[in-house]
Amino acid sequence: MSAKPDRPDKPSKKTVIHVDRKKYEVDDSSLTGAEIRHLAGLGPDVDLYLEQHGDADDRVIADGDSVDLKNGMHFFSTPKYIDPGRV
To answer: Do residues 42 and 48 lie in contact, with contact meaning Cβ atoms separated by under 8 Å?
Structure first.
């Protein structure tokens, strides 16, 4: 019986995502909405969206939603409540 030689761990592959046009490199293959929000420093007063391609509607990402990340994904935030102001 022969022993396998020790192999150094492979460096983790980073996934590049963008939140509000800012680039982030993450080690995880999936993150929750709360983790993406924390990564980008977004407060509870904004909604987080995953930008979709083509005619598909952009998807709201709730804090508990898990997102399988792919290189180049784009997320954006918008105010949760819009005050229409006074007339």
So the answer is: yes
* DSSP 8-state class, residue 54: T
Looking at this protein, which amino acid is placed at residue 48?
A: L
pLDDT tens for each residue of 1-43: 555 555 556 666 899 999 999 999 999 999 999 999 999 999 9
Q: What is the CATH number of the domain that holds 71?
A: 3.10.20.30
Asked if residue 68 is part of any domain, the answer here is yes
The answer to whether residue 84 is domain-embedded is no
pTM: 0.79
Are residues 70 and 49 in contact, defined by beta-carbon separation less than 8 angstroms? no
Q: By the 8 A CB rule, do 49 and 61 touch?
A: yes
How far apart, in whole angstroms, are the C-alpha atoms of residue 27 and residue 16? 9
When divided into structural domains, the chain yields a total of 1
